């Protein structure tokens, strides 16, 4: 054992002996002493609830208070889009041909694939490599989703 480790081990054993004798003097049993200990060699090795991200867990930063603002343009746009979707669902059930319903479903699946497999997994996270033909297909599928260019989607998702 290196001299530093021997000195550290000696001081730890000395502190354990002192704690045991203090427990004996105060009338506590050795099992009580074991219940109070964390079971780790050094207190800095104890797992924290945040995984050791914050030095002092009792001191957490709080965001400054700000007044929330309603953006009426967005509220109106989202409201209109949801009402239009409900009207579209009503038309799909009452008057759309089955070919239209199947085409809409296929476009839904294809556009979702363009976003998840293309813009998200391939270009934003680069979680796999694809050859040129698959990239072309995924960029077309991404275009069907109308969620901006794949370049902008990946850039905004990474930031």
Automatic annotation (TrEMBL):
Needed cofactors: Fe(2+)
A single GO cellular-component term on record: endoplasmic reticulum membrane
Coiled coil: none
This protein's UniProt keywords: Fatty acid biosynthesis, Fatty acid metabolism, Lipid biosynthesis, Lipid metabolism, Membrane, Oxidoreductase, Transmembrane, Transmembrane helix
Subcellular location: Membrane
Transmembrane segments: 70-93, 105-124
InterPro entries: Acyl-CoA_DS
Predominant localisation class: membrane
GO biological process, one term: unsaturated fatty acid biosynthetic process
Single annotated GO MF: stearoyl-CoA 9-desaturase activity
Domain remark in the UniProt entry: The histidine box domains are involved in binding the catalytic metal ions.
Family: Belongs to the fatty acid desaturase type 1 family.
Name of this chain's protein: Similar to Drosophila melanogaster Fad
Organism of this sequence: Drosophila yakuba
Upper lineage: Eukaryota, Metazoa, Ecdysozoa, Arthropoda, Hexapoda
């Amino acid at each position: 054992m290196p001299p530093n480790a021997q000195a550290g081990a000696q001081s730890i054993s000395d502190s354990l002996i002192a704690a045991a004798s203090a427990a004996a003097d105060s009338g506590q049993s050795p099992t009580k002493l074991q219940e109070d200990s964390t079971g780790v060699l050094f207190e800095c090795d104890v797992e924290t609830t945040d995984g050791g991200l914050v030095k002092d867990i009792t001191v957490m930063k709080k965001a400054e208070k700000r007044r929330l603002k309603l953006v009426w343009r967005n509220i109106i746009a989202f409201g209109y889009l949801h009402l239009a979707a409900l009207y579209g669902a009503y038309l799909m059930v009452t008057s759309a041909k089955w070919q239209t319903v199947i085409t809409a479903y296929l476009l839904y699946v294809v556009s979702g694939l363009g976003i998840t497999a293309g813009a998200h997994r391939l270009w934003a996270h680069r979680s796999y490599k694809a050859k040129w033909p698959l990239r072309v297909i995924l960029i077309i599928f991404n275009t069907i989703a109308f969620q901006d260019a794949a370049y902008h989607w990946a850039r905004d998702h990474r930031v």
